[in-house]
Each structure stands twice: as C-alpha cells, then as structure tokens.
Amino acid sequence: MLDIQTIAAGDADFWSRVDALATSDAAERADVREAAESICRDVRERGDAAVLEYTRRFDRRDDLAGVAELRLSPEAMAQAFESLDAAARDTLVRTHERLVRFAEQQVATSWRITDDIGCELGEQITPLDRAGLYVPGGKASYPSSLLMNAVPARVAGVRELVMVAPTPDGQINPWVLAAAHLVGIDHACCIGGAQAVAAMAYGTETVPAVDKIVGPGNAYVTAAKRHVFGAVGIDKLAGPSEILVICDGQTDVDWTVLDLFSQAEHDEDAQAVLVCPDADYLAQVRARADEMARVQSREAIIRASLAARGALIHVENLAQAAEVANRLAPEHLELSVADPDGLLPSIRHAGAIFLGRHTPEAFGDYCAGPNHVLPTGRGARFSSPLGVQDFQKRSSLIKVSPAAAVQLAPLAGHFADVEGLAAHAESARRRGGGV
Predict the structure, then answer these.
(1) What is the pLDDT of residue 169?
(2) What is the pLDDT of residue 68?
C-alpha cells in the first residue's frame, strides 16, 4: 500500500500535524548556505575562471577550455526553433500568445494628479534595464519556466534578457533553445547552480550583470539568490513544489491521483496534499494511487515524495478544508468541488487557485495564461505570482507650486523640528517664504 500519512479532524493533534506539513526551507541548511555563499564570493573575485571551474565539476564538462564556449548564439536558438516539428512549434507559439495576453492585463502605467492645494503628484513607471532568467535543469528540463519568466519581462519592456541554464554532460533540451528564440533572449549561457546566479549578479567577462534575477532552482540556487540580494533584485526564494487539493469526494478518483502525482513527480522534496470530508474517498485515492504509481516513469520519486511530505487529510467539512489551505498557504490549490466559486471567498492564501474539476494544476504549469512562478513554503501569505509588476519600477513624482509650498512648509518644518533636523526645517521654510 502507498506510504502516505493520514491526518483526521478528530485527532487531538490535528492542527499541529497540519502545521508540521509546512515546507521546510532547504536553502536554510547551513551546509547548503555556506557552499552557495562560498561559490558566490569566488565568482565575484575570479569571474569566468571560477564559473568554468564549477561548471566543469558540477556539470561534468571537462571538455571546456573557457566559459565563452558555453554561450549560445541567436543562430543556434533560431535553428532549434526551426528544427522542431510543426506541432511542437505550434504548441510553443500558441502558449506564448496566451501568456502574453494575460501579462498585458498587468501592465501598470504612469499617472499624475493635482491635489487640493495644487501639488502635482504621481508615479513614473519604468521597466528594468536588464533581467536575468534562471532556467532550471537536472532531473528535468523546463522550457515552460523560460516562457513564464521571459514573457512578463518582455511585456514590461525590459531592454535585455539574460538566460542561464545548466547543461549536465553538455545536454540541453532543444525546446529550451526554441523558447529562447521565441521570446528573443539577448544573452544565453549554458551554466547553472550558484555560480550562474553569482555571474548574473556581479557580472563576469562572459555573463553581463543584471538588475534582477528571476526563476526557480534547487536549494543551492535559492541560497545563492538570498546571498546576492541587495546587489541585485530577486523575485522570490523558491522552495520545493507544492499542491493542495480540496475535494468534496465527487471528482474522478484517477483525476485526483494524477493531480497529486503532478507535483510529487518533481522531486523527493515536493509536497502533495489531499483534503476531503469523505473518508471513503480518501481510502479510494490511497488504493488507486498505489496502483497508478506502478506505471509512472518517475515512480520512485513519486513514492518518496508522498512518503516524506504528502498527506491525506480528513476534515469535517469544506469550511475546515479551507482553513487547512489557509494554514499551509500552498503554491498550487485546486478547488475540486461542485461550487468552487462559492468556496473561493474562504481562501486567503494560495499562489494559484484552480477552480473546478476540469482545471488541473497542469494547465497552469503550461498554457492557461497566468504565471507558474509562484510563492512556496507558505510564501503565499505575503507574496504573489511572478508578473509584469516584478519587472517594472515606480518612481514617485512631486511637483510643488509656489502657492502649495506656502502650505507645505509649516508641516515639513514642524516635523523636522520634532526630529531635530535643522537643515530640513530651513529648506522647507525658505520654500514657503519663511526663514
């Protein structure tokens, strides 16, 4: 039988066991943090030489003479796109179009108002100059992550996009190259890990320094992003993938099992949780999952993930299910119930919410439209999906007329007096005609 824990609402330790499911931050492990920080410092000091050393070691690339060999030309990316069959190109193009249409709804524009004393106030919205996109690799390659990171940046108006992607043993997914062509990547280099993050943060002879680094990676990538934050911006500190499914017990059992597998198959640290008021349904899911896992290509990973961090949670009702979801604030939340819109107002914390039985998380991962770069590790309590806003900056605009200065001067002067800042006070009062 499938090894996955069951938590029941009647248990005395119910809520403590629910809380224990919250994602632990692997990047906080001392050994991971220290290794990532050491790599970042080395890259900052030695540039390409350090990047080359770590790439040879971690990606098993003893054949490399220099980092320049890892650069990808626009021609190589274009060739990869043209080499795909027509169906593959159509999939990329149609998905790209859907992501662009959604992102265009997020664009913020500059604005101004004139207030009641004649001050002109507002915000100027400008895009970043250069963004760095980390495309994960390793146990799987993710061209979808490249699209999800690049599209909002392009829609925001970012001038240059820098892509890095690890290529263990020199292998790179042609779909990643094709997607890079489609979004118009300006600089691409086949490096990964903490060394790639450091290269984009500080710049090397080959990799240009960026203003912000986005995109998920493993624990070392996350720890490196934490370390370089401040020198550059980052999107978020991504942890293992998560899904929480709230089901009323009426969804096809196989659908639910596959939705749980869709996250569990990422890696052994991923989390899949099913919350349901029907104990019989939970038992059916457990039994069917054991059977269906046997034919999955990533069976070992799925079983390890479910055993380590998965759960079947029996709740009293859907209201309590929503409370469980809010406690865990999952990356992906499926409301697989008869009336998902009725349950939606009870949900406060989730990265992406999938409404109804015909809306699997997989649609969101690839082609629905919203971004799949989402907060993990309960980050949905205070963070949002990656979007156009992450690639735009706001500058405050203030224009004070002589008449308005007369009214503002006493206010600013008084505050400056209270805080003991004499030059502030005099600067303000002189604009208002005082001394």
Answers:
(1) 84
(2) 84
Q: Which amino acid is at 360?
A: P
CB burial of 237-266 (b: ≥16 within 10 Å; e: otherwise) equals bbbbbbbbbbbbbebebebbbbbbbbbbbb
Would you kindly state where each structural domain of the chain is located, as residue ranges? 5-23+240-359, 28-234, 400-431
Non-local CB neighbours of 241 within 8 Å, separated by 6+ positions: 263, 266, 267, 270, 271, 331, 332, 376
> Quick one: pLDDT at residue 24?
58
Cβ pair 176, 135 in contact under 8 A = yes
- How much is the pLDDT for 173? 86
- Contact criterion met (CB below 8 Å) for 292 and 261: yes
Residue of 242, 265, 331, 361 marked catalytic: 331
The answer to whether the beta carbons of residues 311 and 5 sit under 8 Å apart is: yes
In tens, the pLDDT along 376-433 reads 999 999 999 999 999 999 999 999 999 999 999 999 999 999 999 999 999 999 998 8
CA dist 170 and 74 (Å) reads 18
**Which of 314, 332, 349, 372 is the catalytic position?**
332
Strands (E), 330-385: 332-336, 352-355
Residue 64, helix vs strand vs coil: coil
pLDDT on residue 202: 97
Predicted confidence at residue 138, as pLDDT, reads: 57
Task: Give every residue of the chain whose pLDDT is below 70, as ranges.
Answer: 23-27, 138-140, 434-435
> What does DSSP assign to residue 394?
E
Cα–Cα distance, 361 to 115 (Å, whole number) = 46
DSSP letter at 231 equals T
Q: Which of 271, 264, 267, 246 is nearest to 359 (CA)?
A: 246
Using the structure block, give the residue that is written with the tokens 């001038």.
159
Say if domain 28-234 classifies as CATH 3.40.50.1980: yes
Note if 332 is an active site residue.
Answer: yes
* CATH 3.40.50.1980 fits domain 5-23+240-359: yes
Cα–Cα distance measured from residue 126 to residue 369, given in angstroms and rounded to the nearest whole number: 24
Return the C-alpha torsion angle 78, 80, 82, 84, nearest 10: -150
Q: How far is CA 19 from CA 15, 32, 220, 309, 376, in A?
A: 6, 24, 25, 12, 15
Residue 311: the pLDDT is 97
**Fold match, 5-23+240-359 / 28-234:** yes
